[in-house]
Queue: 2 jobs
Job 1
Amino acid sequence: MLRDALRETIGVEFEKTPQSGGSHLKKGWKLAGDISTPDPDWPFCTEMKWREKWSLEGLWSKKCKLWEWWEQVRRDAELTDLIPVLVFKRNGIKPLVMIVAEGVLEVDDVMFFADPNGTPIAVMQLTKWLGIAKRAFDARKEGTR
C-alpha cells in the first residue's frame, strides 16, 4: 500500500527494502527503513508499522510504542543521512505519518508533539505527507539540475 502510494505520487520506483531495513548495506547504499528507491534525490528513510497496540494518546507517555519505532527510524536515518519518517497504522484508522516538525509549514490537520528527546515532531495523515514529500523530492530534483 505505501509502496504503491509512493510510486503513484512521486513517480519513481519504490520497493520493499531487503531484510526490511535490517540490511548491512545501510551506510553506503542508503538502504534503510522499509521502503527504498534507487533515486538519489529521495530524502526520506521510511519505516512502516502496521500494529494494533498503540494509541495517539500514548504520545504523551515516554513508554509509548510509537516512540520506540520513532527511535528506530531516527537511528536508521542518521546512518544514511536521510530524514526519518514513521508511517503507522492499525485497524480502523487511516495511516498516519510522524516526521521531524522542522520545515513543516502547513498546520492544518497536523498535530505537533515533542519526542522524548525534546525534538519537535509533526503527525499527519499519509495523504497529507505524500504531498509534502512530493514537493521536497521535486525541490531536490530541481536543485540537482
Job 2
Amino acid sequence: MQSMTWLVELTNGQSQEFLDLQDIGGRYYHLKRGFLDKLRALAEQAPNYHLCIGAMKSIKGSKGTANLHFILVLVTSAGLTVSFLGSITDKGHGRIVGVWPAQFRGVLEADQDAILNLLYIATERPEAVRHLELVF
C-alpha cells in the first residue's frame, strides 16, 4: 500500500516529501495557541533558531493541493534530525500534518507521543536544540 505524502517545493529549487500523519496514526497533531509565536520569539533570541520567510513555493498532497503554511526543521543536541509539515486553519490554529524522514514512521508507530515530546523540546528546552528552522 502506498503511503500518503505531501510534496513541498522550495524557492531554492529543492523539494521535500513528508509522510501524511493521518496515514501513520490516523490523526493530525493540533498545536497549542501561541506555539508558533513562541518559536518566532526564540528565533529572535537564540542563535541556533532561525526564521525563513518566503522559502516555500508550492505544496501538493496525495489528497490534492493544500494551503499549508510552515515547516519546522529540528536537529536535537543528540543528533536527531526531523522535519514537520504544518498548516494553519481558518481559525488560526496550527497543526502538524506531515513528518520527514520516512524512517520516522517506525518511531511514531511505536510511540505516538514522540512528536509531542519533540515539539516540547523545541519550545521549552532550547538548550537541547542544536539547530531549528521555522520555514514559511
